[in-house]
Write a structure and sequence with these properties.
The chain has 264 residues and is mainly α. Helix content is 83%, strand content 0%. It has nine helices and no strands. The chain starts with a helix and ends in a 7-residue tail after the last helix.
């Protein structure tokens, strides 16, 4: 049944997100074409309009992935659609897991679309060399592997944003347990939960720093002239903590859902 639930959730997201994926790639291609033909005044204007639209679509992909995930979560569990959803022979765990997996899939797709759009728009040997040289300058100064730096940066950003989405899920669950102002309380609770999650992660890093002086040094100094191993440790530790927070939040969401749902 989880597979069937996921199929409907994926169809919903694809229907709403597909246009942004198409437009993002479309404007990336038009920008590429306009940037590579004779630059008359009109072509330059069209090129700037096109690249502006491309960045707008990139932002829309990221923002709408978050917003549509929250809307889908709310509509299928608490709005009119919920009357059908809760008559299905499925557990609250399956309902939540479907939304969790759907969000994860489209979040990954969104990241891929963004990378492809930027690649189409700006890739050239010169631009690639400039980017790699810039990153190598940073990593060489930090005495850090370029592959490690890029990989950990992407992982931490991905996990942080995904954690924010799941905090929104929990905010919706708590907000819809109220009798009035459910949307307002959902936003408020989601924001508070996100701050709490970030505080917990920071607190756990600080606790770890009590046993690792190199990490503790990051709390004491305003410069980056500290042990490079501390940054590596911090990146890995942050990733692990985000994974633990995401898992714990998922369990908490399921536990709260299992207590019952008040359909509007």
């Amino acid at each position: 049944m989880l597979v069937k639930l996921l199929k409907y959730d994926l169809k919903y997201m694809l229907k709403n997100m597909g246009i942004f994926y198409i437009l993002s790639i479309f404007f990336a291609i038009t920008t590429r074409i306009l940037f590579n033909i004779d630059q008359s005044v009109m072509i330059k204007i069209l090129g700037q309009i096109s690249v502006g639209c491309m960045f707008s679509m990139i932002a829309s992909v990221l923002i709408n992935t978050m917003m549509r995930s929250w809307v889908r979560f709310r509509d299928s569990l608490y709005k009119d659609e919920a009357y059908l959803t809760h008559t299905l022979p499925v557990t609250k765990n399956d309902l939540y897991n479907s939304k969790f997996i759907q969000t994860l899939i489209f979040f990954i797709i969104g990241f891929v679309i963004i990378i492809i759009s930027l690649f189409i728009t700006y890739y050239s040997k010169e631009n690639w060399a400039a980017i790699t040289n810039y990153v190598k300058t940073i990593t060489t100064g930090l005495n850090m592997s370029t592959a490690f730096f890029v990989t950990m940066f992407c992982i931490v950003v991905f996990l942080e944003v995904f954690n924010a989405i799941q905090c929104g899920f929990y905010g919706i669950i708590l907000g819809h347990r109220r009798n009035n102002g459910k949307i307002a309380f959902s936003v408020l609770f989601g924001f508070i939960i996100y701050l709490v999650a970030q505080t917990i992660i920071l607190g756990l890093v600080f606790v770890y720093g009590l046993f690792d002086s190199s990490v503790m040094e990051l709390f004491k100094t305003a410069t980056i002239n500290v042990n490079v191993e501390a940054f590596k440790t911090l990146a890995i530790l942050s990733s692990v903590l985000y994974l633990l927070i995401i898992f714990a939040m998922s369990c908490l969401c399921k536990k709260t859902l299992s207590k019952g749902v008040n359909v509007e």
